[in-house]
Amino acid sequence: MVGGEGAGPLPLPPAPGNAAWSGARERELPLAEAERRVHAEIRALGWRSRYRVLDEDEPTATQCELWHSDGTEVPYGLGSGKGLSAPARVGAQFEALEHALSGPLVFDSLPVRLCDAADLLSGPFGADRAVRDAARQPGARLACLRHSALDGGPDFDVPLFLWAPWYPVPTPGMLERRSRLGDTADYRSMLSYSVNTGCAIGATDDEALLHALNEWAERDAFSLFLLCGVYDRGPMPARIPREALPGFLRERLDRAAAVVGGPVVLLDLTTDLGVPVVMAYAPALAGSSARYYGLGASLSGETAVERAVTEFVQGELLAGVVAEHAAAPRERPARRPAERPTFDQVVAEHDIAAAVRERLAGHPRLLACAHLDFADRLADAPVAGVPPETVPPGTPVARQRAAVVERIAAAGHRVAAHRLAVLEHGTTVVQVQCPGLERFHLITKGHLALPGERGRRLRARDRV
Question: Name one GO molecular function term (predicted).
Answer without folding.
Answer: transferase activity
